[in-house]
Each structure stands twice: as C-alpha cells, then as structure tokens.
C-alpha cells in the first residue's frame, strides 16, 4: 500500500511540473510545513513579504529522521520545491517580448506596459508579429537610445519616476541585460525592476559544508527579520545576485566576506559546480533566473559570523537533516531549496534508486539556462 501511495504522489508531482494549470493561483501562499504537525507553526504567509515565526528549535525538530521515519527515500517533497520556483507559465500569454537590437532580452506584462507608455521618448511599442507573440507587437527602446549608456540612463529615470509604488524594493544596484550570459550587454537595469522587465537575472549560491568522520554537514543561515524579501526564512551560507561588472568567482568571494565572515584565503577555494534555473510568473513579475552553484569545504572549526546585518544567525546541520528540512517544510527561501537539491544529487544523497530520479534531476534546469 505504501509503494502505491508513493507512486501516486510522485506521479502527481511530476505532472504538476509539466502541467502549468496545476500551479496554485497567484499570489502564492506558503505553508511552513508540507504536512501539518503538532507544535510546529503552520501559519500561511506571503512568500516574499511577511515575517516568519518558526525558530531554530522547530527546524531541528522537523529535521530529525525520527520526525517522519518513512519518508527517507521519497522525492515528492523535492518536486514540490521545484514547482514553487516554476509557477504561472499559463500566464505567459499576458507578456510582450522586450526586444533590443533584434534580440529578445525580456518580457513585459501588458499591465506594466501601461506604465511604460507614459515615456514615449524611452519606449516604443511596434505592432507586428515578427517575434512570435500571440498579441502582435513588442516593447523596444526609442531609436534615439542607441548606446548601452543612453539606455541605462533613460530606463533608470523611468524606474526612479515610477518609484516604490510600482517597483517596490529599489536597491540602486544594477544588473546587466543581455540575451544570454557572457553576451554583449545592451544596458543595465535596477535589480528590483528585473522581474518587471522579465530579463534574465543571474546569481551565485554557495553550499558551505564541513566533513568530519565521513559525515558532511551544511551551514545554514536564517535571514534577518528586517529583510524586505523572505524575512526570517532559511538561506544558504552565502548567496547573492550577480551585479554588473563583477565576475562570478569574485562575487562569491565578496559575498563570503559580507554574509559569513569567510576570509578571502578560504573563500577563493570555492568550486564552481554547475547551475540551476527556473521561471516564475507572479502577477506582473516574470522571473527568469539562473543560479551558478558553488561548493566550499570549510575547516571543521570554522564558525560563520555575518558582517552585513542580513543574516540573523547560522546553524550547522548534517546534510541528511538539511534534506529533511527541504522535503518536509517550506522553511527555506524557495530558490535555495533547488540549489541544495542539486548538492544532494552531486554528493550521492539522491541516487538512481530513488523513484523519479531523472525527472527531478531534469527539473533543476526548468528555466532557460543560457
């Protein structure tokens, strides 16, 4: 009977990845636990805005094998976390291509495009179907804006004018905009505006782990309650967006120092191990993210200390316990879960003997990984 239930659960999870109609309505509400359990908070919260209420004691309790002894080989909880990062593709038809120099660099929701039409000296809206858009038409820059510098200045003024009411969380941090990673940069865009223009955004996520007597453990951070996004949720030891003008490896080193107090001499040993990608539509926001994954084996006696005030505290968990947290709860910031799932594959914690192995592996690059 248990095997029949597991097969049905996996089938439903895989189907939900392939069938956008099964994705929850927007806005999406997280429940902390995949299944409700005694003495653990299950209050629903908005996925990016409201403060969370669980404690490290809650995290430790739910991470232990004895908490749910029969789920050690079940992947359905991992499929759920991938699905959370890949919502809303049924709403793709509501977006117009954003085209620069004949290249599609993003997607703009029809509703957000109304705001851009207030700036005819910056944006144009040609009405043809050359970019295979069901609505016909696309968004582009005014022909007078012919250089990256001109476009960056112009769109920066637009973002500044629209302000927090339209684009919340403005950080004054620029992301490069290109058709794919490593290609020429067409302009730079305020980080908070990236999902409203549907550009590809890149980041670095680092699994910091220690190994003692053959057992690996992951350092996990708990985000500050003052963070504007995902306050109080679990996070990687080190992670950050990839801003304009900095290489991935150098960004990892910078983030290591700021977020965990890891000195450069240790941080430079971080190993690039691949990437994951996802595509998430939520209202007028179209996130097309690629995360470069790094592993760093830390000294056994190393204890991280946050330097920038963005992390409340850190704890060290056996990798198997960290896997249980992801499988059983939604304590983690959503995109961290898929990076740790990737770690579980690469370090042999998820094996071909687990039903759904290849489907889960393939799902870690659901987005356009380019």
From TrEMBL:
Gene3D superfamilies attached here?
Nucleoside Triphosphate Pyrophosphohydrolase (3.90.79.10)
The residue ranges of the Nudix hydrolase domain are 201-342
Concerning its family, UniProt says: Belongs to the Nudix hydrolase family.
Pfam families given for it? Answer: DUF4743, NUDIX
> Record's SUPFAM superfamilies?
Nudix
Any GO MF annotation of the entry: 8-oxo-dGDP phosphatase activity
PANTHER family, alphabetized = THIAMIN PYROPHOSPHOKINASE (PTHR13622), THIAMIN PYROPHOSPHOKINASE 1 (PTHR13622:SF8)
Superkingdom of source? Eukaryota
Q: Return the protein name.
A: Nudix hydrolase domain-containing protein
What is the stated purpose of this protein?
A: Probably mediates the hydrolysis of some nucleoside diphosphate derivatives.
């Amino acid at each position: 009977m248990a095997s029949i239930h597991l097969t049905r659960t996996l089938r439903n999870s895989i189907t939900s990845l392939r069938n956008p109609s099964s994705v929850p309505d927007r806005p999406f509400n997280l429940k902390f636990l995949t299944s409700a359990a005694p003495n653990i908070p299950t209050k629903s919260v908005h996925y990016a805005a409201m403060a969370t209420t669980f404690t490290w004691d809650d995290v430790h309790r739910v991470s232990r094998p004895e908490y749910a002894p029969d789920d050690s080989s079940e992947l359905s909880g991992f499929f759920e976390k991938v699905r959370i990062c890949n919502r809303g593709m049924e709403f793709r038809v509501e977006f117009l291509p954003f085209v620069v120099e004949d290249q599609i660099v993003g997607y703009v929701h029809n509703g957000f495009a109304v705001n851009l039409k207030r700036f005819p000296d910056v944006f144009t809206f040609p009405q043809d179907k050359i970019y295979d858009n069901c609505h016909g038409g696309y968004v582009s820059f005014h022909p007078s804006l012919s250089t990256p510098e001109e476009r960056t200045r112009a769109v920066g003024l637009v973002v500044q004018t629209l302000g927090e009411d339209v684009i919340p969380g403005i950080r004054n941090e620029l992301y490069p905009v290109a058709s794919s990673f490593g290609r020429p940069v067409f302009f730079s865009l305020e980080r908070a505006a990236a999902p409203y223009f549907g550009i590809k955004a890149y980041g670095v996520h680092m699994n910091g782990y220690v190994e003692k007597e053959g057992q690996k453990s992951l350092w996990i951070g708990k985000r500050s309650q003052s963070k504007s996004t995902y306050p109080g949720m679990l996070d990687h030891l080190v992670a950050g967006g990839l801003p304009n003008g900095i290489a991935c490896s150098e960004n990892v080193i910078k983030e290591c120092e700021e977020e965990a107090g890891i000195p450069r001499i240790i941080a430079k040993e971080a190993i690039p191990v691949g990437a994951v990608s996802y595509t998430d539509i939520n209202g007028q926001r179209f996130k097309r993210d690629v995360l470069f994954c790094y592993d760093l084996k830390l000294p056994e006696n190393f204890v991280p200390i946050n330097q920038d005030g963005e992390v409340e505290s850190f704890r060290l968990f056996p990798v198997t316990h960290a896997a249980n947290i992801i499988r059983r709860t939604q304590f983690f910031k959503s995109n961290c879960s898929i990076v740790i799932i990737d770690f579980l594959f690469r370090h042999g914690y998820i094996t071909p003997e687990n039903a759904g192995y290849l489907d889960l592996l393939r799902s870690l690059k659901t987005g356009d990984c380019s």
